[in-house]
Automatic annotation (TrEMBL), chain B:
PROSITE patterns in the cross-refs: ABC_TRANSPORTER_1, ABC_TRANSPORTER_2
Record protein name field: ABC transporter ATP-binding protein
Assigned protein family: Belongs to the ABC transporter superfamily.
Subcellular location: Cell inner membrane
UniProt GO cellular component terms: plasma membrane
UniProt entry keywords in alphabetical sequence: ATP-binding, Nucleotide-binding, Transport
Occurrences of domain ABC transporter (ranges): 3-252, 276-520
Annotated InterPro entries: AAA+_ATPase, ABC_transp_ATP-bind, ABC_transporter-like_ATP-bd, ABC_transporter-like_CS, Oligopep_ABC_C, P-loop_NTPase
Gene3D superfamilies: P-loop containing nucleotide triphosphate hydrolases
Cited Pfam families: ABC_tran, oligo_HPY
One annotated GO biological process: transmembrane transport
SUPFAM superfamilies in the record: P-loop containing nucleoside triphosphate hydrolases
């Protein structure tokens, strides 16, 4: 067992190192974007062409950001600042980027977590009772395909119109409490559930055809137990991999959903910061999203080993 | 307690009407007796076994004049009654425990599930019982083994664990569906012993096998199935000794053991075609430990001769073949082919460009040819690909003559590999191999996946081709009957080393090394002769 933990620790350390590399790449990209974008980086830092800063402010910012020094030094300074957690000042919101992240990240993370959770729940409910069961399987499979094909923003608008405006069952907008989370969550979760369920159905179906399923049935195990105790575990692996990808996709889709439902959040902040050319905020959000994506990958890696212990690679 | 089966038929719906998988099978299975169902793939053996425990599938239509366990009619059983019966009164063992046990769970939990499915005992009692069962099937150190997954156990141990899970509630009847297929002969002999003990303790066995030797050792009564119909059934000694039906005779004659061994030929002089010298290879396993996979392996192969490579799985046979074909580079040692360096370990590898002119002199045949064909290609395309120098005008003729050489009709050229039978597929693979007129064909278990009658035909074909074209074979097989029939010389491998080498006639009759004797004894235990 201790050797297993040791190996797990090694694996995690490797992944962590890989994750840092990805963060470095993301930081380098935002640095490059800042310097390759047309115009003087100082004007970008100070609020774009329309900001009209005073010459003193430009000089001060130029000195503060080290823009009067060689590019390599600037790059080093930039990385050093990020390493210290200094992401700069958002000019469009007039507050530090860190503070923006602190305020905007929790609602988006909550939305992502609830969407992923609901998507898993829907996928499980759709696949486990219906796989390889004739008509119900065919119907569920069709619904999954339709679900996977729904555009999130369109679904969001539809839900908003139906459940919030026509029937007034749920609040149409806002960030307060669980009811406001329901519609955005459904808009993100239903298409994701469709994807997840399609992958899950295929591997579940494959697992149900394996000899060990026949062995389990020959032991006198009922169909429900066969599905839950044997087939399901085999079907989880590809879904875990898909989920870690979905975390990245959810951030992207959150942009549209947070705007449609007028929610606070990173997606909305990202949209606004891009629209106002608020480069420090864009870089900060990109770095944060990269971090979340890396952590999701780490979590998936650990879950893989828990679900399929063969991956630890302790063979005799 | 007995199982009475009378006129059992099972059919499946198909686009062309009901397809009868099994027709009118009748037998009675008593405790302490063994009934064997024998036949080739597709003969309906496994479907019959599954029909007996109500697991033939939702699509299956099962009928019988009588299907009764101890007088109780099984035809009208509800799903709940079937579940109560499975595992408790009739157990079932499938082939290859690596996939017949859940690969993600420790074997102890799989065995305990046989108990918990019938609400047997408390958790602690079940754990105790699992340990007792593991001991009962001859697994030492049960507390450790119960916590290991099938992939962490050797082939023999996991097959025993599978049997332990089937006999957990001591069912009076046990169905064993190809319980030893794909196992090494020595492991097969152990499983044979275990099943024999269960029979002696009063378990009734329904044994399903394509291996007549295995059946002969255990069965009291044999039923020979062909295309779902019973062609012959009766006492084992009668069926195997004085078969009446032509198909039974075909099956018996196809057993390579019944074929006369290869006639000894004097050792040739002259330079060898292929010479391997001191091949060694070590690899780090997934657990971080370095294992010696090959150690100091050397041999020579002369033109027109067949060198057999035998040993248990994991002994390095396939690795040797991969080095000989230039697919794996050894750490040290070298291979000479056609008098020039072919593979060299260490610092100065032989470049693939130096091998390429001689590549066509060496061909390969694998156990499962399906995986070595592009599924979208027709047989014509597969063979045309092996004949790049033939002008397109003569190509169809060349393909037809190749197919004729491997005794396939020319009409097969338009078909895809998936639409061919296993035997036809292997013939296409052989046709592709001989298309380039090689001097050497490396055959890795070329007939292991084939039914015995097809096996015999493919071996006949390989012999005839060698006679006509003068090729040498490097022949890997775990089946000593096949080796005896095909090989001039034999190498015995154990744990990456050659423990014995010499003429086949000598090694297979008067082995010197203890390991070779073990292999021969195991094969002897399993042979019908």
């Amino acid at each position: 067992m201790t050797r297993f933990l040791q190996r797990l620790a090694w694996r995690l350390a490797w992944r962590l190192a890989g994750g840092l590399l990805v963060l470095l790449a993301a930081a380098s990209l935002t640095f490059a974007a800042l310097h390759l974008a047309p115009g003087d980086p100082v004007t970008a830092i100070l609020g774009g062409a329309s900001a009209n800063p005073t010459p003193e402010a430009i000089a001060a910012a130029r000195h503060e950001y080290g823009l009067d020094r060689p590019l390599a030094v600037q790059y080093g300074l930039y990385l050093a600042r990020i390493a210290r957690g200094e992401l700069g000042q958002s000019f469009s919101l007039h507050m530090p980027v860190i503070a923006v992240l602190r305020a905007q990240a929790p609602p988006t993370l909550a939305l992502m977590a609830s969407s992923l959770g609901v998507a898993w729940l829907l996928a499980l409910l759709s696949v486990v009772p219906t796989a390889r069961r004739g008509l119900s399987g065919a119907i569920a499979s069709t619904l999954e395909t339709i679900g996977a094909g729904l555009p999130q923003f369109w679904l969001g608008i539809l839900l908003l119109w139906g459940l919030a405006f026509e029937w007034r069952l749920l609040p149409p907008a806002g960030n307060h409490g669980l009811p406001t989370l329901v519609l955005p969550t459904l808009s993100l979760a239903i298409p994701l559930a469709g994807f997840l369920a399609q992958v899950m159905r295929e591997s579940f179906d494959l697992a149900l055809g394996q000899p060990f399923i026949l062995t389990a049935r020959a032991r006198g195990l009922g169909d429900g137990a066969v599905r839950l105790r044997h087939a399901l575990r085999h079907a989880l692996l590809p879904c875990i991999g898909l989920s870690s990808w979905a975390v990245g996709a959810l951030v992207g889709n959150a942009v549209a959903i947070e705007i449609i439902f007028s929610r606070q959040g990173l997606g909305r902040a990202l949209f606004l910061s891009v629209a106002t050319h608020d480069m420090p905020l864009v870089s900060g959000i990109v770095l944060f999203v990269a971090l979340v994506y890396i952590l999701a990958g780490l979590a998936a890696d650990t879950l893989f080993i828990l679900v399929d212990p063969r991956l630890k690679g302790t063979r005799p | 307690m007995s199982l009475d089966v009378e006129n059992l038929s099972i059919s499946f719906p198909s686009p062309t009407g009901a397809h009868m998988a099994v027709r009118d099978v009748s037998f009675t299975l008593h405790p302490g007796r063994v009934v064997a169902l024998v036949g080739e793939s597709g003969s309906g053996k496994s479907v019959t076994a599954r029909g007996l425990i109500g697991l033939a599938g939702a699509q299956a239509h099962v009928t019988a004049r009588r299907l009764a366990l101890n007088g109780r009619d099984l035809r009208a059983l509800s799903p709940r009654d079937w579940r109560a019966l499975r595992g408790r009164e009739i157990g079932m063992v499938l082939q290859d425990a690596l996939v017949a046990l859940d690969p993600l769970r420790p074997v102890g939990r799989e065995i305990a599930e046989s108990l918990s499915a019938h609400r047997w005992g408390t958790r602690t009692e079940r754990r105790q019982r699992v340990h007792t069962l593991l001991q009962q099937v001859g697994i030492p150190d049960p507390a450790l083994r119960a916590r290991q997954r099938p992939d962490e156990l050797s082939g023999g141990l996991r097959q025993r664990a599978l049997i332990a899970s089937a006999i957990a509630l001591t069912p009076k009847l046990l169905i064993a569906d190809e319980p030893t297929t794909a196992l090494d002969p020595s492991v097969q002999a152990q499983i044979l012993g275990l099943l024999g003990r269960l029979r002696d303790q009063g378990t009734g066995l329904l044994l399903i096998s394509h291996d007549l030797g295995f059946v002969a050792r255990l069965a009291d009564h044999v039923i020979v199935l062909h295309h779902g119909a019973v062609v012959e059934q009766g006492e084992t000694a009668r069926i195997l000794g004085r078969p009446v039906h032509a198909y039974t005779r075909t099956l018996l004659d196809a057993d390579p053991v019944r074929h006369p061994p290869r006639a000894a030929r004097p050792a040739p002089d002259g330079p060898p075609l292929l010479a391997a010298h001191a091949l060694s290879l070590a690899r780090r396993g997934p657990d971080g430990l370095t294992r010696q996979i090959l150690a100091d392996v050397g041999f020579t192969l002369h033109p027109g001769r067949t060198l057999g490579l035998i040993g248990e799985s994991g002994s390095g046979k396939t690795t040797t073949a991969r080095i000989v074909t230039g697919l794996t580079r050894p750490d040290s040692g070298q291979v000479t082919f056609l008098d020039q360096p072919w593979v060299r370990g260490g610092g100065q590898p032989v470049a693939e460009s130096a091998r390429r002119p001689r590549r066509r002199a060496m061909a390969m045949i694998y156990q499962d040819p399906l995986g070595s064909f592009d599924p979208r290609w027709t047989v014509r395309q597969i063979l045309a690909d092996a004949l790049p120098d033939t002008p397109s005008t003569g190509r169809d003729h060349a393909i037809a003559s190749l197919l004729d050489r491997v005794r396939l009709p020319a009409s097969i050229a338009a078909r895809h590999p998936a639409a061919l039978s296993g035997g036809q597929r292997q013939r296409v693979a052989i046709a592709r191999a001989v298309a380039v007129r090689p001097a050497l064909i490396v055959c890795d278990e070329p007939v292991s996946a084939l039914d015995v009658s097809v096996q015999a035909q493919v071996l006949d074909l390989l012999e005839a081709l060698q006679r006509d074209l003068g090729m040498a074979y490097l022949f890997i097989s775990h089946d000593l009957g096949v080796i005896r029939r095909m090989c001039d010389d034999v190498l015995v491998m154990q744990a990456g080393r050659i423990v014995e080498a010499g003429p086949a006639a000598r090694i297979l009759t008067a082995p010197r090394h203890a390991f070779t004797r073990t292999l021969l004894d195991a094969a002897q235990d399993l042979s019908a002769a």
